[in-house]
Fold:
Amino acid sequence: MKIVTRFAPSPTGFLHIGGARTALFNWLLARHHGGTFRLRIEDTDRQRSTKEAIDAIVDGMKWLGLDWDAEVVFQFARAARHAEVAKELLAKGHAYLCYASPEELEEMRESQRAAGKPIRYDGRWRDRPVSDTRPNVPPVIRIKAPRSGETIVRDQVQGDVRFANDVLDDFILLRSDGTPTYMLSVVVDDFDMGVTHVVRGDDHLTNAARQLQIIEAMGWPIPTYAHLPLLHGEDGAKLSKRHGALGIHEYAGLGYLPEAMRNYLLRLGWSHGDDETISTEQAIEWFNLDNIGRSPARVDFKKLDNLNGHYLRQTSDETLADALGPLLDQRGTKVDDELRAKLIKAMPGLKERAKTLVELADAVYFLTARRPLDLDEKAKKLLTAEARAILKELKPVLAAAKWEAQTLDAAARSFAEHKGLKLGAVAQPLRASVTGRSTSPGIFDVLAVLGPAESLDRITDQI
RNA sequence: GCCCCCAUCGUCUAGCGGCCCAGGACGUCGCCCUCUCACGGCGAAAACACCGGUUCGAACCCGGUUGGGGGCGCCA
Structure:
């Protein structure tokens, strides 16, 4: 059987981290089986759906590298077909017209609440004859759900989840204005699109039971369900605005790599023994529904940082230099060919010290800075009177050496030895004067990248 | 209130009745490497929510308690 999965977000906000994980799992499942992965925008809520949200979702998917097959399906455009199915259900006797007004229903719920009873539609129009109508009141179509027995959702993650049918009420299929509800639309679209595996958030588990009732009434095939435990924020509660509720594409701006994000998201609820760093290729090969955990997970950005650092170090110097372009541009530095060459040369030392592209951009200060350098506090403290005196003596020694990291290193070492100093006593002041910071890549590598003229001038500025 | 789901180190997790006085990873703390910071290496602290059962034997099975989460719309 050819597997078809889908990611079906409603465009009422951006694609957050939880949605991104759902999308990833669907994508992985499809790619693993050589199946099809579809994107469907559930825009039937006309009030809340926005073009911006659709763009944000599409951008987020693209950034994450989750490519979908065939064209995007917009659910609202299929409303006529959904209504048709509702009418069919009505004709078959699996649904009925209900003329109860929203106010009337609210009253009903109120009294149920007050009486401590379960809140659900009481079926007041269920068994009335078709001749029984209310003039000038447009009815809704409700499903005539079975009242006894149980509906079992056979879920790949949650196991068999049983719902007594008497706790599931006769929900609305078609609104009084003739538009379909989510419950109906999802089922019809999944059927029409040939979706075989429904992988989505846990919050849809009860819906699955209701959807099953529609599917059974229509005699359609039941898809395989997998309901993923929801993601929680770092504090254990909801995903906070601070971090978890960011749009996924905003992580790009924070300096994260898509492959790191994929790896991170994958391990949130899915595991493969003790494996932690899992490439996307490996993930496609290994992914399955069996290894999805049943308990909710919290997001932990420290781990994302660590993973991102790992993937940063794996990325080529050229790619990284180019990725820095836009970030440096924002800071007012244009990357020309000369700077690009320096970035690439310095990258091996730079990238193992950074966790994100933003940190990387911060760390290239010494390459882009103009003389005289702005020393930070720690650098200033390093440049004591003694330190400056050492630099004064060191400068001609360096100037006389062949300008390569290794020879510069050797020259500085023998200089320190003759003066009875530790290398650090020489290297730290040197670093402060040349980079304006107290930390940097190996100082002799820095010197080599900067070249003799610029380096010696920077030293001169401080003595 | 009713229904459903979940419960192993701070966090993500391995574990699917004996291999577990519980393993890995992130984070934390030491030490090593070292010109700084990182990277890397080594090591440490750190968990089976609780109570009953079942069993020769339970983190794993069953029941309950507690604690989290989700659902109960003419929203999706």
